[in-house]
Amino acid sequence: MTLADHLPILPIIIPALAAPIALLVMRRRRALGIVISLVSCLAMLAAALTLMAGVSDGTIMAYALGDWPAPFGIVLVADRLAAMMLVLTATLALLALLHALVTRADRKGWHFHPLFQFQLMGLNGAFLTGDLFNLFVFFEVLLIASYGLMLHGQGPARLKAGVQYVVVNLVGSSLFLIALGMLYALTGTLNMADMGLRVAAVAPEDQGLLRIAGLLLVSVFALKAAVAPLHLWLPRTYAVSTPAVAALFAIMTKVGVYSIIRVVPQVFGESAGAAAWVPAPYLLPAAMVSAGVGFAGVFVARSLSEQAAYAVIGSTGTLLIAVAGWTPESLGAALYYLAHSTLAAAALFMVADVTARRRGAFADSASPGPAFAGRGGIALLFMAAAIAATGLPPLSGFIGKLLILKSVAGLPDWGWAWGVILVTTFIGVVGFARVGSAVFWKSAPDSSAPAASTSRRDLAAPVLALALLAALSAGAGWASAYADAAAAQVLDPAQSAAAVLTERTP
Amino acid sequence: MSYEFLVASAIGVLVAGGIFLALRARTFQVVLGLTLFSYAVNLFLFASGRLVIGRPPIWDKAVTEYTDPLPQALVLTAIVITFGMTAFVVILALRSFLETGSDHVDGDTVPCDAQDGSADGEDTRL
Fold it and tell me: In this predicted model, what pLDDT tens digit does every residue of A16-42 receive, in sequence order?
């Protein structure tokens, strides 16, 4: 085995090493800890890009942990979808880390950098693993780190929202375990590829149990993805989190979406016999309701960060409308929109933070406040982020929504999907325009002196996020071709089963 | 009554109690509910390898019938994770109560004085 064969495990190893080292050196040398955190993120991005280059020709890399052969040991699977999610995570992590550093948000507590790295380890692991129980373990890793990050900075509001967030996720984890227990009892395996081959052989009298297990599993993923009616935990949690952390959390809901995309075709796909596509009929209505709820929340939000949180729900809904088609075209469009909406949500949270830092006591509330220095520039940033979040040209959201509309046009429920996407886009545009004009055009009559204006350095991360969205728009041809190829690969579970289960090293 | 019935009804009772408590308004009851629920989940996970009595989980030449060792490993992992999470949520609930002065999960700020049971008509002075 050469070093290149160990590439798939690098995105997990790097943060797993960086976190404890950062923890050890932080007390004595803060700067060194920050350097370790930054270097780890850069190394992760490099590893993810190398992995992406390696799998872009359609090969599926299977990595047997401890060299145990596939159905018995745990296997990591790197395909186009996993590589894409890894690159997205690393990019987002760099943006969030940059924002945390320039706004000094990481100085509010001692353990920001170690927790940040553990969070990334959990995310990368969840994207790479090919084993359902291992997916549960990585979910727990990323959740435990996220509890710490969410509470970073403390304060009564965070603690109160934190209790709810933790309780909701503990219930979710328990349900995840129940679904896993049922699936293991029925199929005798936890390897996703192996399970996909075995569900067809489940006895007819056990089909009811199998359906329950599948629906329970998808419900848990929907809880993580904040799909209506399981979205109620998200707005308060994200709105009170430290903005740099909220920007990173933009990918947490996408982990749920990723798990749905990964597990449903592979385990409950065409070959699943009687249980084929069990969760499919429920996904589209739930997705449409969450798109509606999300953009309605954007319309009535009382603060910029709350608005950004509702935009996350809305974009997840839009994304799942496309996923629920389960055709290569719609799934490809969904993956392109997934990359876009993650970066757009992060940009919104960071712009909200940048605005709040300049408005003193008014913070980011959606009401007229004092006129602050550089308001025009930040208003432009907010407009660009809002354009990205609602999907207007010229940023990549427009292309994403266009691809989704085009791909669902051939499906039976296309009228509903078109109606919901177009109406929610309109509601979102009006909502962002309302809040933007209140915050950036009006001034409170008795506005007190604004807070000491900060330097413009904190604009770096949001500007960079928007530049990436512009790049995603400019490179849409290449990006959507990659997304289509990834979707085709995901919808053909036989390919990955062949790659995973023949990986028998002598 | 069979062994299976005993385990199944135990899981059922634990789940019922756990869900009832998890839906209560106070953090202490919710934490207890989550703990009961996780016990039920661990038992369920253990039973997913089928219930057999007196069979070894480890390979041996003299043995022809085994119990499935994998669920036992899974349960061990799940127990460790839930134990850690329970410890965390207890501390978090305590911090939240001390800082906000309210142990209500729904976010309502109920002053400490009103929490002796008179607020929601319950008698907690046991």
Answer: 999 999 999 988 888 899 999 999 999
Q: What is the pLDDT of residue B102?
A: 82
Other CB atoms within 10 A of residue A108 CB: 13
Q: How close A144 gets to chain B, by Cα (Å)? A: 8
Cβ contacts (< 8 Å) between B77 and chain A: which residues?
133, 137
By CB atoms closer than 10 A (0-12, 13-18, 19+), residue A402 is middle
CB proximity under 8 Å: B 38-57 to A: 38, 41-42, 44-45, 47-50
Q: Domain range for residue A314? A: 279-492
- Mean pLDDT of the A146-174 span: 90
Please state, in angstroms and as integers, the Cα–Cα distance from residue A416 to each residue in A264, A320, A404, A413, following that order. Answer: 23, 13, 13, 6
The residue behind tokens 């996904």 is A283
In the numeric block, the tokens 């607020």 are attached to: B119
A254 pLDDT exceeds 80?
Answer: yes
A187 in a domain, yes or no? no
Q: For chain A, what percent of residues have pLDDT higher than 90?
A: 68
H helix or E strand, kind and range, residue B31? helix B27-47
The per-residue pLDDT for range A88-118, each reduced to its tens digit, is 999 999 999 999 999 888 888 878 999 999 9
Chain A residues near residue B71 by CB distance under 8 angstroms: 181, 184
Q: How far is A174 from chain B (nearest CA, A)?
A: 6
Q: Which of A87, A202, A198, A85 is nearest to A132 (CA)?
A: A198
- Taking the C-alpha atoms of residue A107 and residue A60, their distance in angstroms, rounded to an integer, is 41
Is A365 contained in some domain? yes
Residues from chain B that touch A151, judged by Cβ atoms under 8 A, are: 92
Q: What is the 3-state secondary structure (H, E, C) of A408-426?
A: HCCCCCHHHHHHHHHHHHH
Is A341 domain-assigned? yes
Residue B116 falls inside a structural domain = no
pTM of the entire predicted model:
0.92
* Residue B107 C-alpha, separation from nearest chain A C-alpha, in angstroms: 6
Answer for the pair A246, A349: CB distance below 8 angstroms, yes or no: yes
Within-domain flag for A256:
no
Closest chain B residue to A189, measured at CA: B70
**How far apart are the C-alpha atoms of A305 and A345, rounded to whole Å?**
10
Longest dimension (CA), chain A: 78
Nearest CA among A306, A339, A274 for reference residue A80? A339
Taking an 8 Å cut-off on Cβ atoms, the answer to whether A162 and B92 are in contact is yes
Question: Is position B69 within any domain?
Answer: yes
Q: State mean pLDDT over B58-82.
A: 87
Provide the number of structural domains found in chain B. 1
- A·B CB contacts under 8 A: 90
Q: Does pLDDT of A162 surpass 80?
A: yes
Is the CB of B48 less than 8 angstroms away from the CB of A182?
A: yes
Question: Would residue B46 count as lying in a domain?
Answer: yes
DSSP state, residue A131:
B
- Confidence grade of residue A358 (pLDDT, cut at 50, 70, 90): confident
Domain that holds residue B83: 3-100
For residue A411, the model assigns a pLDDT of: 86
Q: How many CB atoms lie within 10 A of CB B118?
A: 12
Task: Determine which helix (DSSP H) or strand (DSSP E) holds B104, and give its type and residue range.
Answer: none
Q: In this complex, do A177 and B50 lie within 8 Å of one another by their Cβ atoms?
A: no
CB contact under 8 A, A137 and B70: no
Q: How many domains does chain A have?
A: 1
Residue A389: pLDDT band with limits 50, 70, 90: very high
**Looking at beta carbons, which residues of chain A come within 8 Å of B74?**
133, 180-181, 184
Q: Is residue B34 part of a domain?
A: yes
